Amino acid sequence: VASDHRQNLRLQKLRRLWSVCLALVGVEAGVLIAWSTFQAHRFALGLDFSIYNQGAWLIAHGQLNPWSSIDGYLFARDHFTLLMWPIAAVYAVFPRPLTLLVLQDLASLGAGLVAVRWVLEILEYRLGTSRGELGRKVAAIIAGGALLAVVLDPWVWQADSFDFHMEAFAALFVILALRDFWRHRPARALVWCALTLLSGDFGGLFVVGLAVSVIVAAVGYRRWGVITLGMGAAWLWMVHRFNLSNGDGLSGYAAIVYGSSSNPGTVTIINLGRAMVTHPTRWMSIVGQKRGLLYENLIPTGFLGLVNPWTFGVTTVVLLSATLIGPRIFLQSGFQCLPAVAIDVVGTVLTVVALLTHGDPRHNRRARRVVAGVIGAVVLSQVIGLAVVMFPRTDTNWVRISEPQAAVLGTVLAAAPQSAQVISSDGVMGRFSGRQWVEPIPWGGGQTYAIRSRVVVFVVVPNAGIESLPSAQTQQVLSYIRGALHARAIATGHGVYGFQWVPGPGVHTVTLSTT
């Protein structure tokens, strides 16, 4: 974009494609929201969703600095996700678990919609400024390919199916920020950067990556890139310096710092950065071990965004942070990679357009189009192949609770007083989390719980839901609840067990023994 090109880009030659895009994404939004509704109906909402749902419920009920009984610390310190306070205002109007899921769906699809709009603006600009080397037909083919890559991307469905995470909002804000820098609207871009930071501690990392791209790619606007870099770096420093985020997850990078994930040493940004430089074989080895999953995450993006100056910064930090952390779930579920997916599609288009228009338009024009066509065919064939493989797995991956089990859980939920303290299996606790006190049954057993209410409800579901506890452990917990506590059964059946227990006078704690 020329340095003096500040006005809004109005789609004229490609406006019909934009209308098609809006229609397709609108249909996808309806289907995705219907899927989220189905998940909520089946109680297929686990621990991560419960943390945010309880936080939103408490804020909506006037507790502006709520305590998370699931985390065991203030909710604000769960990744420092300050954006949850305005989200809780929406939750107050629509006070049901589905509200969070719908907002997540709209944010993740919104990021893809912005990506397609940005692609159309790139093509519209090139159609208006090039000397005929990029025809309208070629532009339409490129735009159609980008639209298919966004609509058929199965990682959006995987990410939105795995509970609730703030990365969807960060993905939307960071691509809006990068697009405004490309459009030479730095002041507005900084507003989107600020919202990215409010999405959580990880937002600082995303903004740093964005700033690197702006410094490299935006000639004449590098001062703004430096300002943005300072914003992201200052946010990361503040969060970790003042211990504002207990959920920062840096312990997941212990293998890079200490050579072993079992090392109990503290991981900080400083010693992690030092280890990345002094022990490169450690993190390279982790990348090698997860190269298959990393490759699958890159398929819908077209890969070329990794090398494009405008998009390599965010893409690199997002994918590396998800790859180098210990648990594979961060790559398997897709939620942490959402910012890279949307932005990298744009990077691929920018690279292909540069291939077609750079230099003398008469030099190797046919060869350039052949290369661009091969790139597009390879990318789209892989996107379609990945979608064919992954979409049918969505149901079995994320909804592991049958309709009869959901019916029993619904009976337990209806019978549980709003003031009751709920102690539940991780995989089904989501819809029980809209209350003051809700706590998970942990792996290993032996957890001691303070009695917070006159009524305690136990929800135990062996072998159902994601992140379910081992069957042997849950059976021992059930024996203890029945035998030692003499809890009254609310509803049982189909492998679902709901109990209500009224602690006696002087009983202040309960330990769910598994022996």
Pick out its properties:
alpha/beta; two-stranded antiparallel sheet; disordered N terminus
Note the overall shape. elongated
**Amino-to-carboxy terminus distance:** 68 Å
Strand order of the largest sheet: 4-3-6-8-7
Largest sheet: 5 strands, mixed
Helical stretch count?
21
**Computed CA radius of gyration, to the nearest angstrom:** 25 Å
Structural class: alpha/beta
Topology pattern, helix = H, strand = E: HHEEHHHHHHHHHHHHHHHHHHEEEEHEEE
Query: Which strand-content bin applies to the residues?
Result: 5-15%
Question: Unreliable segments (pLDDT under 50, ≥5 consecutive)?
Answer: 1-5
Number of strands: 9
How would you describe what is shown here?
Helix 5 runs parallel beside helix 18 (365-390). Mean pLDDT is 90; it is low at 1-5. This protein has 21 helices and nine strands. Strands 4-3-6-8-7 form a five-stranded mixed beta sheet. A two-stranded antiparallel ribbon has the order 1-2. 58% of the residues lie in helices and 7% in strands. It has helices at 15-41, 47-60, 84-93, 97-129, 136-151, 154-161, 167-182, 186-198, 202-217, 222-241, 254-258, 269-278, 280-289, 291-298, 312-324, 329-332, 338-357, 365-390, 394-398, 403-415, 471-483; strands spanning 67-68, 73-74, 421-424, 438-440, 448-450, 456-460, 488-493, 496-501, 509-511. By secondary structure, the protein is an alpha/beta fold. The termini are far apart. A hairpin with a 4-residue loop joins strand 1 (67-68) and strand 2.
